[in-house]
Amino acid sequence: MENYIKQVLSYSQDGIMAVDYVILFENDRIHPIIHKELSTRLTKDQMELLHFVNNFDFYCSSGSYHPPAIEEYFNKTVQPYVENKISFRSWAHVEWQPWKSPCIS
What we know:
single chain, three-stranded parallel sheet, 5 helices
């Protein structure tokens, strides 16, 4: 987990330093850790370039892990950036147990 968080931090910070928006599709347990650490490394204005999307909502928006629904959710999320020619990068955390759908509690 520590290595994963370091990678997300590095990816996000590099993007923000390049003045790209960073869209993090991350779980609500890890997001606060990432946000807290980045807020010590970046200015308030730079932190405005960081956008969080709950990865459970992202992957399970249709009630199950359904790739067309995931693609539609992603396209809807990035549409304002694309339409306005705003540079962005995204990070999506996929997590699931091999024996059941990640969308079932």
